[in-house]
Amino acid sequence: MDICIDKDLVIVGGGPAGLAAAITAKENGIDDIVIIERDKYAGGVLRQCIHDGFGLQMFGERLTGPEYAARYEEKAKELGIEIKLNTFVLDITGDKIVRTVSPDDGMVFYKAKAIVLAMGCREKSRPAIMLTGERPAGVYTAGLVQRLINIDGFVPGKEAVILGSGDIGLIMARRLTLEGVNVKAVYELMSYSSGLKRNIVQCLDDYGIPLYLDHTVVNIHGKDRVTGVTVAKVDEKKQPIPGTEEYVQCDMLVLSVGLIPENELSKGAGVELNPVTGGLFVDDNMSTNMDGVFACGNVVHVHDLVDFVTIESNNAGKCAADYIKGKKNEGEAIEVIPENGVRYVVPSTVHKNCDRKTADFMFRVGKVYKDARITVYDGDRLVRSFKKSILTPGEMEKIKLAQMDIDSASQLRIGIEE
Amino acid sequence: MYDIFIIGSGVSGGFIALELSKYDLKIAIAEKSLDPANGCSRANSGIVHGGYDPIPGTLKAKLNVRGTEMMLEMAERLHIDYDRCGAYVIAFGEDDDKKAYELYQRGLTNGVEHLSIVSGDELLKREPNISKDVTSALHSGTTGIISPYKMAIASTELACTNGVEFLRAHTVIGMEDMGDYIRIDTDKGVYEAKYVVNAAGVNSAKIARMLGDDSFDIIARKGEYLILDKSESGIVNSVIFQMPSKMGKGILVSPTIDGNVLLGPTSHNVDDMYDKSTTKDGIAEAIRGAKRSVPTVNERKLITMFAGVRSVPTTGDFVIGQSKANPRLFNVAGIESPGLTSSPAIAEYLVGIMKDCGIEMSTKKTYVMNRPAEKKPRLMSQADANALIAKEPAYGKIVCRCEQVTEGEILDAIRRPAGAVTVDGVKMRVRAGMGRCQGGFCTSRVIEILARELGVSQTEIRKQNEDSKMLYRTLREE
Ligand SMILES: Cc1cc2nc3c(=O)[nH]c(=O)nc-3n(C[C@H](O)[C@H](O)[C@H](O)COP(=O)(O)OP(=O)(O)OC[C@H]3O[C@@H](n4cnc5c(N)ncnc54)[C@H](O)[C@@H]3O)c2cc1C
Ligand SMILES: Cc1cc2nc3c(=O)[nH]c(=O)nc-3n(C[C@H](O)[C@H](O)[C@H](O)COP(=O)(O)OP(=O)(O)OC[C@H]3O[C@@H](n4cnc5c(N)ncnc54)[C@H](O)[C@@H]3O)c2cc1C
Fold it and tell me: What CATH homologous superfamily does A125-257 map to?
């Protein structure tokens, strides 16, 4: 017989999302909380993000990742929230039993009244972009390189090529340069960078690292260690153009080709995933389709700014607390549907007649738009529209709608009009 | 002076070492790489074939059938997973129907059991995702799936438990007949042995020539593969082959023993024996081929791609036995498919020949029959897991998140005889880094554990071969 420990709230993941959700739940009257974190410290991916720029929204300060994480970790400790470190969640069952394992406690089962999923995301790796060629040492994802340098204290190569201009790729271009690595260039498949504008300026331009748009790596060379890569220009269909190939010598290829929510546990539990993002469908209470299972942070959708993760997670913590106290939101909910260039929207359903003035909607677009409008329709009726001088896939958009607008709608469709 | 010096620790070398380790002999097995299973045995389809395909009367036919027979017991002794999931060779139209029937007949001639012909409709009932164009199929009930590199590693390990010396990172570069022994030059020093077993895979013709044997040559033929995520398991329940041709058994769709799905291989001759690169065209061809059998294959779920090089012998059959050029040399060469399947039988057959040649073999008093099983807490009951973790806390520390591999399992892989010393060595043994994130999460942790356990700096840790260091320099004083 398996021995189960009863808990009001089990939080899976001790990154910024899990920490914020726990703190808010505690502040809302829930005492019996445990955070399960597989790493030897809390703080999630922030612990390896030693650059600054975190917390502009929440604190009006430019904090480093570890500093931002520390504020929440200390708060959680102050509040006496139990954090189980070095503890891995193996699986979650439909009846909210969480199976964990750790060196200190062995295999422990928790039976939870409510669960908050906050497992974050992981990096896409080489096969995700079908990158063929040799399979030598020296092909690393950007987040791995970041961990190797910032946490473990190792420089993994001498000459690097970076594929993908997402934020982590850009930040690592600078970080590697500062460690004396010759960063030859950043190549980007799309016609735009998916990173934040400020990162292109501060991480590439300031160091004279070239960014080649509409380019990709088509081959990796080197039987044992990378000796070079072949890059090529791509056409509108993103296919390499024959004759444009160029050999670039390097001993390291750093891949920054996207992040995907880490949802194996959710899938196993039977929580519904959004096929577009690999994230979770949640309502405005950050509740998944499973009763009593909430989610927040990168496990729902990949955020650019941790501040938004915190805001979203505060909401999840509050709603989980309400749920445990028996305050369920049983009002009518309507669907929120992405259309016309909007890839997904969080939340995917929203409740009517709530005690709040506004509700937030977050989404990403599929391509670059200039001087466009974000439109919100209910049937044929235009509910709201927002002017935007620029919209890019690299930056998450956030709009607020008045609760009044939601109350009177039967469905909301969010799209882009040029 | 060794009695027997084996060159190459693929499945051939591994099983031969294991078979010979029963006897009172001084044996070494030299491997170019840091780990067993660096050649063909690392990258192949992982199928234990039924034996209906090889031409009757050939060594391939005989040893395939015998190998399949031996595999159940061998897998149990070595504690490696093996599943006789069965296979279908599918036919598209009348020509293929005829060929399926020919294969059936050939199988009977080879002495293969559990063969039958099924109709297209029947097949669709058993394998609902198969192409609707399939008209009939040969079913082989004894075909199964296994991890090929685990076979090479486990056989080498158990051989070493029984006293065989594993010379890792030893490349044989020359040999000389000294009259009553052979002098073997490696890049790490000189060795002497009474007899040499050449099990060097694609390199076996070159090795044979070192002692003047040019009776065969090896053609290198590359095959490219894709592996799909475990989420796709269940798309087929058994191995799905197309009709074999001169270039091989065609592109298959198969479950793997670890719950993934395998697509491939392609089949193209290559000049470079060590060309293990994947190509855009090759991968596209493998996907096309797989879709012909199973149209709903979802290549977007791919988690890795790889390629293997077949050692195709110019003689058309396995080259196994005493060399005519030098009686101290025994060749085990041209071991193309079904070489994996045949490997235990190849060992049995070769050792028989060696005895017939008068090499004295007296049975050892102490022989360890079984390789201990790995402990996997994720699959244990709570009570068992807790008992284990209380004793060895490292079994409570998950290192690879995708495959849920613990530090305890990794330490065990390093500490076993002929244990892991590289990142890939750990990966092949316990699957850390083989899941959907392909090591994005665990690589740095595996490097750290290897360095700690081996007592070297992390910058000394390699991916696979000697020139494949993972890290360049440290930032801090160590
Ligand atoms: C490399 C990188 C650079 C970034 N740079 C910036 C920046 O400059 N500015 C900015 O504002 N934002 C930045 N962000 C975004 C921000 O840091 C993240 O959005 C934020 O950390 C996400 O928080 P999270 O809690 O959802 O996920 P994470 O921080 O990933 O935390 C998830 C936690 O869950 C744990 N976990 C997962 N699965 C299990 C399991 N099975 N058992 C136990 N524990 C588990 C993980 O160990 C981890 O600690 C960056 C993000 C990344 C990835
Ligand atoms: C694409 C493909 C698919 C296949 N599918 C199947 C299948 O499904 N079922 C099946 O039964 N068979 C299959 N096979 C065949 C099977 O993989 C081989 O028959 C088997 O692995 C051969 O093992 P080996 O030990 O003879 O050679 P290898 O595994 O190649 O071992 C030779 C070893 O010798 C070492 N070596 C080479 N030169 C030197 C040197 N100079 N000094 C020291 N060491 C040296 C190499 O590093 C290597 O480790 C397939 C093969 C391929 C390529």
Answer: FAD/NAD(P)-binding domain (3.50.50.60)
Is residue B49 annotated as part of the catalytic site, yes or no? yes
**CA–CA separation, B152 vs A40, rounded Å?**
36
- Model confidence pLDDT, tens digit, residues B62-82: 999 999 999 999 999 999 999
Q: Which of B440, B464, B469 lies closest to A122 in CB terms?
A: B440
Q: What is the pTM of this model?
A: 0.95
Element (H, E) at B200: none
Q: Which residue has the tokens 């099924």?
A: B118
Note the pLDDT tens digit of each residue in B152-201. Answer: 999 999 999 999 999 999 999 999 999 999 999 999 999 999 999 999 99
Q: Would the CB atoms of A122 and B441 count as touching at under 8 Å?
A: yes
CATH class of A1-122+259-328: alpha beta
Q: Identify which of A50, A119, A148 to mutate to test ligand 1's pocket (most ligand atoms within 8 A of the CB).
A: A119
The per-residue DSSP string of B56-106 comes to TTSHHHHHHHHHHHHHHHHHHHHT--EE---EEEEE-SHHHHHHHHHHHHH
Q: How far apart are CA A293 and CA A316, in angstroms?
A: 10
User: Residue B31 belongs to what domain range?
Assistant: 1-83+145-217+314-373
Nearest ligand 2 atom to the CA of B333 is 26
Residue where a domain stops, chosen among B311, B337, B359 = B311
Q: Do the domains A1-122+259-328 and A125-257 sit in the same CATH topology, yes or no? A: yes
Domain boundaries, chain A: 1-122+259-328, 125-257, 331-418
How many structural domains are present in chain B?
3
User: How big is chain A, counted in residues?
Assistant: 418
Name the token pair of B168.
């890792």
In B, minimum Cα distance to A134 occurs at B277
Find out whether B251 and A200 touch, Cβ atoms under 8 Å: no
How far does residue B10's CA lie from ligand 2's centre (Å)?
6
What's the ipTM?
0.94
